[in-house]
Amino acid sequence: VQLVESGGDSVQAGGSLRLSCAASGFIFRISAMTWFRQAPGKELEWVSTISSAGDLTTYADSVKGRFTISRDNTKDTLYLQLNSLKTEDTAMYYCSTANSRGQGTQVTVS
Questions:
Q1: Phi and psi at residue 78, in whole multiples of 5°?
Q2: Which residue from 63, 68, 100, 105 lies 20 to 30 Å from 17 (Cα-Cα)?
Q3: Cα–Cα nearest to 83, from 39, 5, 3, 19
């Protein structure tokens, strides 16, 4: 299993980013996928999960209405659109299957 996140950057509060996660080594289209994040000095936090078909999504209250999870099963890629970013969104963002997690991409909001 390989999960490679990208798209992290430094942005100002109120800005937007789109994170991507390229998946390989497993059958992506039948796997529910999840985004987590971890801020410096804090525990890993669940952000959002999407079903294998992409028809069901759930979000943490802290990001609901601002973040959107999606996937493209033809490209084996998971996405997370981050809008109306806040300083408290600063964290390393990870995509994950049930058993594996990528190396992460850094989002810094100032």
A1: -110, 145
A2: 100
A3: 19
